[in-house]
Design goal:
Elements lengths: L3 H13 L5 H8 L1 H7 L7 H13 L3 H36 L1 H22 L9
Helix pairs in contact: 2-5, 4-5
Length: 128
Amino acid sequence: MQVYGPLQSAWFAEISTVDRTPDVRKAFAGLGDCLTAHQVEARDENAFLDLVDQRLQAADATATRSLGSVYAACMKPVEAARQPLRAQAALRFRASHAAEIAKICAQLPLKIAKLEKRYRIRISFPKV
């Protein structure tokens, strides 16, 4: 399935433009202040995710759960700005890459079935 990698790269390129739009950048500008208000020492999303990684590696489950709720609260304005732009990007992407998506949808289940037989495992995915 040589189409998967290039299609994934194309999608990442498409979706990455969302975070550079003025509305999303404006929403991100408030993230650091929100994190500070929740007594989290991180100036931006990357610093926050680094902090989560540190806590995970320290097996600090209580801290990671509390950080999850802080992340949800502080990212709410960002996600509100992102969501409609991502939906528009997805519509454009599906339209412009319909043939590649159809090919993956046709080939991937067959590939998974072969791998299940080869490795004697069962793979399941939730239907969305």
